[in-house]
Every structure is written in C-alpha cells, then in structure tokens.
Design brief:
This protein is an alpha+beta fold and 170 residues long. Helix content is 41%, strand content 30%. Strand 2 and strand 3 form a beta hairpin. The protein is flat.
C-alpha cells in the first residue's frame, strides 16, 4: 500500500465526520436577543409603582428597556408590575438568640400587553433573594434590610427583562 493510499483512508473518516457535523449544525440558528431582529424593549411603558420596592424594580426596568434613554414617547406595550418584599431571620446567634443573618425575598408578578389590541404577550411570577447581616443598631438594621431589598429588586428586574426579551424575540 502506498503512502497516498494510506492518507486517503485516514482522511475518509475525517471527511465523513465533518460532513455529519455540518449537516447537524445546518439547522441551528443563532440570533441576538437584544440586537437587530431581537426584541424591541424600548417600546415598553411600565405602569406606576405603588411601593418602594416596586419602584426600584420599575426604575431598573425603565433603564434596561430604554438603554438609559428613559420612558418611551409612544409605547407599543404596557407592563403591569406587582412587587412585594419580605425579610426573615435565618440564623440565631449568641446567648440571647439575637438573629444576625436574614434573607430578603422580593417577588413580583408581571403582565405585558400590546397597546394596539390589549392582547397579553407575556406574564409570569419571579422571585429573587438577597442574604444580609442584621446589626444590633436599629438604623443600621433598617439600612441593611433596605440594601437587601434593593439588591433583590435589581435581580428580579434582570429576570423579568430576560423573560420579556425572550418572549418578544419570538
């Protein structure tokens, strides 16, 4: 057997493998979620908030949807949010069983509707959690809870944004 025959027999499985791989990948699509042909998030109006935590989520979504440009002048969609936060102790420490660690959970429901026909485009329920330490001073404790709520609210806004972007990009 000559060296050229051996090279041909070595290249045949490689060529067959490349052919199979390219045929499998031919059906795949890669599309940008936020770029051209992606979701038009800038046309979403968000209803006013009723609580402080809901306002944090609303502000974060306005910034994310508009890319920092603010609220849209002529929106195509309306987003209704209902957000609430709660903080609970998770770890007792010390001799007097003071709680020093806590968990803040911010949960929210959202409904995205088209302004043209009132059709519900997307809806869902999401929750985000932030862990925090609770100091013994009252003001520091309140500030720690607020900071935990803010962190969880920003995480919740990111989840809602991803859900809506995925739904609108279809």
């Amino acid at each position: 057997m000559s060296s050229s025959d051996r090279n041909k027999t070595r290249l045949a499985p490689l060529a067959l493998g490349l052919l199979v791989a390219s045929s499998l990948l031919a059906g795949c699509q890669v599309r940008p979620l936020y770029g051209e042909g992606g979701a038009d998030l800038a046309g979403i109006e968000i209803k006013p908030a009723t609580t402080r935590v809901e306002q944090v989520v609303r502000n974060e979504l306005i910034f994310k949807f508009g890319g920092g440009a603010g609220e849209p002048a002529s929106p195509d969609y309306t987003l209704a949010l209902r957000v609430q936060g709660s903080t609970g102790n998770v770890l007792a420490a010390g001799t007097d069983n003071d709680f020093t660690a806590a968990r803040t959970t911010v949960s929210g429901t959202y409904t995205l509707t088209a302004r043209a026909d009132g059709k519900v485009i997307a809806s869902g329920v999401r929750a985000a959690t932030a862990l925090l330490d609770l100091p013994s001073q009252n003001y520091a404790r309140l500030r720690a809870i607020r900071d935990g709520e803010d962190r969880a609210a920003r995480s919740l806004a990111a989840m809602i944004e991803a859900d809506i972007a995925a739904k609108l990009s279809r």
